[in-house]
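Lecture notes, structural biology module. Today: joint structure prediction for complexes of two components.
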Amino acid sequence: MTYKVGLLGLGTVGTGVAKIFQAPAGRHPLLPEIEIALVGVRSLNKQRDVAINAEIVTDDLESIVNDPAIDIVVEVIGGIEPAKSLILKAIANGKHVVTANKAVIARYGNEIFTAAKQKGVYVMLEAAACGGIPVIQVLKQSLGGNRISELTGIVNGTTNYILSRMYFEGADFGATLAEAQKLGYAEADPTADVDGFDAADKMTILASLAFGDRIKLEDIYREGIRSITSADINYAKELGFTIKLLGIARRVEAKDAQDRHLEIRVHPTLIPIQHPLANIHGVTNAVRIEGDPIGEVVLSGPGAGSGATASAVVADIINVVAVLKSLPNQINQLMGCSHEHYAKIAPIENTVTQFYARLLTHDKPGVIGDLGTAFGKHSVSLNAILQKNTIHDGLAEIVVVTQKVSELNFQQAIATIRDLPTLHSIPTVLRVI
Amino acid sequence: MTYKVGLLGLGTVGTGVAKIFQAPAGRHPLLPEIEIALVGVRSLNKQRDVAINAEIVTDDLESIVNDPAIDIVVEVIGGIEPAKSLILKAIANGKHVVTANKAVIARYGNEIFTAAKQKGVYVMLEAAACGGIPVIQVLKQSLGGNRISELTGIVNGTTNYILSRMYFEGADFGATLAEAQKLGYAEADPTADVDGFDAADKMTILASLAFGDRIKLEDIYREGIRSITSADINYAKELGFTIKLLGIARRVEAKDAQDRHLEIRVHPTLIPIQHPLANIHGVTNAVRIEGDPIGEVVLSGPGAGSGATASAVVADIINVVAVLKSLPNQINQLMGCSHEHYAKIAPIENTVTQFYARLLTHDKPGVIGDLGTAFGKHSVSLNAILQKNTIHDGLAEIVVVTQKVSELNFQQAIATIRDLPTLHSIPTVLRVI
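The predicted structure, tokenised, for the full assembly:
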């Protein structure tokens, strides 16, 4: 007897999945017991990078999720619709689902997992965050004995590629983005990546698993990398930092249980060059997990691409099949979702962190004094201040790094500084980890 | 209903395990359904770092593995006996086993897993290699879709601590070992660590899971770090390398299926400073896995210690309990062992790798020519040659790094060089990755 998979989508990821099943030698011994029985595509005539028997290919995707012979529906179409409806229909039909769709899970995870629980089926999502890095299973199972306090990650390959090139080559954002687009590392419309939407989707999923609560995507503070210039990268270097788009999720303890909450944010971040995420370059993703009693664990690997994502999809498929083989009518609690409550997430104003700011001022005596007074007035202590030579048109560039301060105090100080007559502009404000 | 654990051993790891179950808040929701029902210790009077109800503590370890109420036996005693016999008796009594015992698994895994298969019980070993790093489950499940081609690891914390300090402080091996012993990072008898025995045990386990075959410990080539001097570390630095005790396991392909084999070795290794394992310092462990289609994944974290190892033990316990809860009489194939054959492992002579050698020669004209001729005669091409100023007593220090050559050719060249009248001695020979 074989277990029958209905594969929705034969793009990059779907092709990768099909190729693994076509060459099972040297892989997990369960693979030959699994069959890709049906493949759903948008266009039947498109040239494919993998040979699939035409008889099992259909453009009627609904027929796959409705087919009683299918045990597991693998959704690798991407995008919200029709993916979301197909997932829900598959669940309604009692099928297990494996999905790589971070956008759907981050937005409709609640609805999907509630439906899955009612029907007693699995919804597996290893491929939905960080591609090939096995971080989902690690959070769900391997670190189950731990109380996770922090999860920090480079979870978007496109922005990490751009920032790595800016760091090593001194190039500016626009030129590097254009190059990344030419090389296929960035989409024609790069918004999802460079503005942090994709990273926020993934952090919703990762934080939910790390902290055992449901997370609302809209509660996550999000900021992209468009404002980063080569000047910022150079100052960061000089100060012993690199700049990465980080997802940061932290458990914030409090004496009063009611005050305990999470902090989840996605923004470009200065990180010290000795930090374990500082040397993750190019499209590579990495996640650093801190917990009690384990301490620090770092996982890195390819965050996207055909092979890496397919590896994660296949891991989920064999996990489901292994359970189906032994316990067809029971749910393994480690593989299901046990979250019932939404986490309390603090607004960004409550965050306590260090800041980096680059300011352009009129080159007049007393400028530094004015800045210092404004910061001091709002209880913002400074860690470092760099003043470079006048750059042009009588403007001086000043870079400050604060000590740990509340976001609210810092923003108030910045508002005060914007009103200083000596100030020209504040091109960049970044957080520091 | 709770699931009953019999804990054998209340040392560092056992204490860590007990502490996790005593404070389940914020950890996996399955924990409160699991009870440490019995604890076996060698001495009932020893002061412990954790409060355990005296009524459940016994020094009759056999009584625990024979107790019909116990579902899972957790063996964290260490050492070969009585651990091995207790594990086998627990299996014979139909109990699932969780063990952190790399020495027993590396030597008697065959017997133990065969017995477990016959009785239909799990033997879980996440804690037996690399402590808290969840590499066992990753190999068994998360990377199941991949054909693993190489697994390379820093799998011994003691030697990595020593080599890191030698690298950063320029200290010599003996002094650093003494310091490590004083700080508790090395045992009074450091043999198991510094001579690579512990690393070889772990590589037996990791390679078996990566490549899906049983591995005989005695087939693994093993070399420790006692010969490394600060001079070698400095030369390595100058050449762009660091020195680590690496476990290296590789699948060697061949056209003829009969010629396919594995290469598994543990030895101090020069690794380029950009290599993902080069910046793993101190007692941290890390494993780099290369597979198709995933590419490269790196996992790092604490390789030993109470909390990290306990984290791995508890992960195994909840994995077993999750399965027991859903259906007690079936085996999940992903958690069992499916290996039936021993791998074919090549002798070290067949290895093809780069070498580093430090030679002391009499400072006479023609020395370099003599060396070059000797290497050339055995088809050993050189990548780099460094000759420093005469150091003392008319001796010159020469360092060579070869291109990739067969171990056999290299050793023959070294034998020829040992006979050269201009040679004084060859203090160090190391391999390069």
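Point to remember: The radius of gyration of chain A is 24 Å.
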